[in-house]
Amino acid sequence: MLRKVGCSLVLVDEVHRLDLNTRSGANASDHLKYLFDSVPATFVYAGLPEHGLFSGMRGRQIAGRFKTVHTAPFGYGLKTQREHWDKLIVSMEEPLRLHRHRPGMLLEHAHYLHRRTGGMIGSLDQLIHDAANDAIADGTEKIAKKHLNEVLLDTAAEQQYDPGPQPRASTTTKVAGRRPRS
């Protein structure tokens, strides 16, 4: 079927859950090898291969078909890293269909978004989509900082986030009045 529809990309996530020592894991591995050999597409397996995916005879067969690319969270210290992060935000913001939200509005919160998520794509995706749902629910139809602040993220993101010192409310009162004439 994948050949018939012209599939050119197959993404398989959580491959580290494959236990090649079980019958079902071995069968799944064999099926993935069959697909790789019979479908003219690019295959991307995402997960943690150090958990046995490449061990044993089946594992060596899988390892012989793929290149390992190690990934890390998005950085934010360098200008080019911030530019990549901004592009990611824009790409996630673009498909939102909020009536009052303009593309690019989330860029003013780029640093906050990075700090909140630790540069992790999955956490950013969760944050933006949950905030968008909150903006729909409260009728504002645009993501504001309060929506972002109210989202509870995955445990890893919440544990790494340090909001830092909170700005104190100003105690200065300004009084409007006329300036005396001189």
Report what the structure shows.
This protein is mostly helical and 182 residues long. The protein folds into two domains: 9-63, no CATH class; 79-160. The protein is built from seven helices and two strands. The chain has helices spanning 23-38, 56-63, 79-93, 110-117, 121-137, 145-150, 155-160; strands at residues 9-12, 42-45. Strands 1-2 form a two-stranded parallel ribbon. α1 (23-38) links the parallel β1 (9-12) and β2. The model is unreliable at 169-182 (pLDDT under 50).
Précis, in short:
By secondary structure, the protein is mainly α. Helices cover 42% and strands 4% of the residues.
Provide key terms for this protein:
42% helix, 182 residues, single chain, disordered C terminus, two-stranded parallel sheet, elongated, mainly alpha
Order of helices and strands: EHEHHHHHH
- Tally of distinct domains: 2
Structural class based on helices, strands and sheet pairing: mainly alpha
Helix content: 40-55%
- Average pLDDT confidence is 86
Strand order across the biggest sheet?
A: 1-2
- Detail the poorly predicted runs: 169-182
Rg, Cα atoms, Å: 24 Å
- Categorize the overall geometry: elongated
Q: Ends: how far apart? A: 88 Å
Strand count, sense and barrel status of the largest sheet are:
2 strands, parallel
Number of helices, counting only DSSP H or I runs of 4 residues or more: 7
Q: What share of the residues does DSSP label as strand, in percent?
A: under 5%
- Strands, total number: 2
